[in-house]
Amino acid sequence: MFYKNILSALILFVLLTGFVRVSRLIPAAETKKWVISETSNLSVNGTTNINKFTCDIPNYGKTDTLTLIKGKNDKDLVLSGSVELKIQSFDCHNSMMTHDLRKTLKASTFPVLKINFLSLSKLPNLTMQPELITGLVDIEIAGVRKRFDVSYQISTDAQKGIHLVGTRDVNFSDFNLIPPRKLGGMIKTNDKLNVSFHLKIKAEN
What is this structure's pTM? Predict the structure, then answer.
């Protein structure tokens, strides 16, 4: 019994010390918290068969937090968090167009447009010189969620604020929506839209 206890203790010691050595070889994950300012904004640019239009949400109106987790190398990056924008906040600078867009996006049933952030292609340098990177997001409109690659420009300002500007072309049809039409179908909104958002961010740590 005595020898069995000694043997068990030795095995436990080897396992524990081995675990410690292995854990030292695995770099600890680096986590950063980014707080999104309420002055962040989003715009949607589109065209009809006769002109162009821009609809925007000039102020996010609340704060949220994004979490950036870096793994073993710069390519192991997880960006988590989301923003939810009220469809009723869209302003197309034309009352008829504003009404039509809100109706098309089913604002009464699905009152928010949601962007879920998933990843970045690399760890940003965070300098005043704009840097081009990409990332994955899920965009949810009218109850339909789609995954997209997004192109970003990221930079900092003199007050150490971070500016993350993302752009992506999407289609109404991506979300099972029919573009607005007016005057008996004579004015037709094209399917393609360009979505651009500007997140103004402060780093927590």
Answer: 0.81
